[in-house]
Amino acid sequence: QVQLVESGGGLVQAGGSLRLSCAASGIGFSISTMGWYRQAPGKQRVLVASVTRDGLTTYVGSAKGRFTISRDNARNTVDLQMNSLKPEDTAVYYCNTFPPRHLAWGLGTQVTVSS
After folding, report:
1. Per-residue pLDDT tens for 3-57?
2. pLDDT tens digits for 43-100?
3. Is the peptide bond before 99 cis (omega within 30 degrees of 0)?
4. What is the DSSP string of the chain?
5. How far is CA 110 from CA 48, 51, 55, 72, in A?
6. Could you please report the per-residue DSSP string of 22-35?
7. Are 14 and 83 in contact (CB under 8 A)?
8. What's the pLDDT score for residue 113?
């Protein structure tokens, strides 16, 4: 059974930091490229960053230079360190494989950045 559980979101002021964590099971984690996605109100869910099983990272758009994705294959977790947060980072954040398994989405974790 696939299970993805995100945590670590919250309310933070602009310029602050948050660290998100995702615990994965049932997806063959160690061989999968993993990604963090976000969905802002009224917008589509989009990829923020991804990390291959060997640790090669890719960042999309405004995540470059501010966010760091990492994974622990022994613990089946993938984290997203977010620094210099901006109000436009406000969204629900999800983890999944990349490309995503559409039946595997978890509940996500809400990140709200106040100006």
Report:
1. 999 999 999 999 999 999 999 998 888 889 999 999 999 999 999 999 999 999 9
2. 999 999 999 999 999 999 999 999 999 999 999 999 999 999 999 999 999 999 999 9
3. yes
4. --EEEEE--EEEETT--EEEEEEEESS-GGGS-EEEEEE-TTS--EEEEEE-TT--EEE-GGGTTTEEEEEETTTTEEEEEE-S--GGG-EEEEEEESS--TT-----EEEEEE-
5. 15, 21, 26, 23
6. EEEESS-GGGS-EE
7. no
8. 98
CB 63 within 8 A of CB 47: no
Amino acid letter, residue 62: S
